[in-house]
């Protein structure tokens, strides 16, 4: 499938959060994750608990924002609390969504990249799959805690790699995530030790169900 260019609509973040706080609660997703190469079931179990925490915290913030807004006339400090809640929301929300991309890529076990759409797009933008893979792995080895991400930009019809600090710093505005690799220590240290980061990255790709990633690409087009 070839991607067709579509318009991107940008929203005022505070207005979106205000509406979400009244109408929306986020739901913890369940993932069908089989036994993985290198990544233990215990690590997956503990990692899923952390993901659940992001969902819980995102919902909690949405509940608290209207409450503290109601204090604004009585407490001059309340607006500062509301501002901090908005800042923290981006961390919790992106932590939730990043993990959903991460875990969904493992569902139902590994399959090769056979779909023509994503494969052709990678070859067009990077020359070959192997070239893209080498560059993505280099991004994943960036020092610090964060994520290696593959994005699709509708405006330029282009795939781009990026490093995200923590959960929310450095996301490419208006672009759709296609693949997310968690490089926080909790995702690999118990199984690989700190010196085994490269092995974890290699095994991550051995465990991928590329049909799930292809779906992300199709949805982004």
From TrEMBL:
GO terms for molecular function: metal ion binding; superoxide dismutase activity. The keyword Metal-binding applies. Keywords: Metal-binding, Oxidoreductase. InterPro entries: Fe/Mn_Superoxide_Dismutase, Mn/Fe_SOD, Mn/Fe_SOD_C, Mn/Fe_SOD_N_sf, SOD_C_sf. Mn(2+) binds at residues 47, 99, 182, 186. Its EC number is 1.15.1.1. It is an enzyme of class 1 (oxidoreductase). Residues 117-216 form the Manganese/iron superoxide dismutase C-terminal domain. Belongs to the iron/manganese superoxide dismutase family. This is superoxide dismutase.
